[in-house]
């Protein structure tokens, strides 16, 4: 079986299909429920067996009163939900690199919480490099109670969108 050469660029979608990536542009992902299996599997994968995540009796004695998901697990789910969203899929052929992430975890995520990701363009630098723009996307994981549980600013380099929208 033959595959396309890695040097062969994929065709870009027609400019009429792209959203305007001005500051304030928003899109949202579908939802996903965080399960006990997610937490156990992430603990095994990462080696992070902090009792707050895996020990029911210990976690019950904490201010949270129950086990919480690893922050990095929820950040990973946030990333996956974003890349599966229609808003991101339109941009994907333009994405060249992730260059920075700033992240915070304002609230815990519990087993059974369902999160959606709200993505907002917060900064745009056209021609950051020749033919390339820098765009900062604020991605917020929001649970079913409306609480932001992860807030992360993803700085990304994209092929220039100038004149594309």
From TrEMBL:
Q: Which Gene3D superfamilies match?
A: Hotdog Thioesterase
Residue ranges of every copy of the MaoC-like domain listed in the record: 27-127
Extract the signal peptide range: none
Q: Which InterPro entries match?
A: HotDog_dom_sf, MaoC-like_dom, MCH/BMMD
Domain of life, per lineage? Bacteria
User: PANTHER family of this UniProt entry?
Assistant: BETA-METHYLMALYL-COA DEHYDRATASE, MONOAMINE OXIDASE-RELATED
Protein name, entry field: MaoC-like domain-containing protein
**Could you tell me which species this protein originates from?**
Achromobacter piechaudii
Taxon lineage: Bacteria, Pseudomonadati, Pseudomonadota, Betaproteobacteria, Burkholderiales
């Amino acid at each position: 079986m033959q595959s396309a050469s890695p040097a062969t660029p994929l065709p870009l979608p027609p400019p009429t299909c792209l959203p305007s990536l001005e500051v304030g542009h928003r899109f949202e992902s579908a939802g996903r429920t965080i399960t006990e299996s997610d937490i156990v599997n992430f603990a095994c994968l990462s080696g992070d067996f902090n009792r707050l995540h895996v020990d029911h009796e210990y976690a019950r004695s904490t201010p949270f009163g129950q086990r919480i998901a690893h922050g990095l697990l929820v950040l990973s789910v946030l990333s996956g939900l974003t890349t599966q969203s229609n808003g991101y899929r339109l941009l994907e052929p333009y994405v060249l690199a992730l260059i920075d992430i700033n992240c915070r975890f304002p609230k815990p995520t519990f087993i059974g919480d369902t999160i959606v990701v709200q993505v907002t363009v917060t900064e745009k630098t056209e021609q950051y490099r020749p033919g390339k723009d820098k765009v900062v996307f604020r991605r917020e994981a929001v649970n079913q109670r409306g609480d932001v549980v992860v807030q992360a600013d993803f700085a990304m380099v994209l092929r220039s969108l100038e004149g594309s929208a």
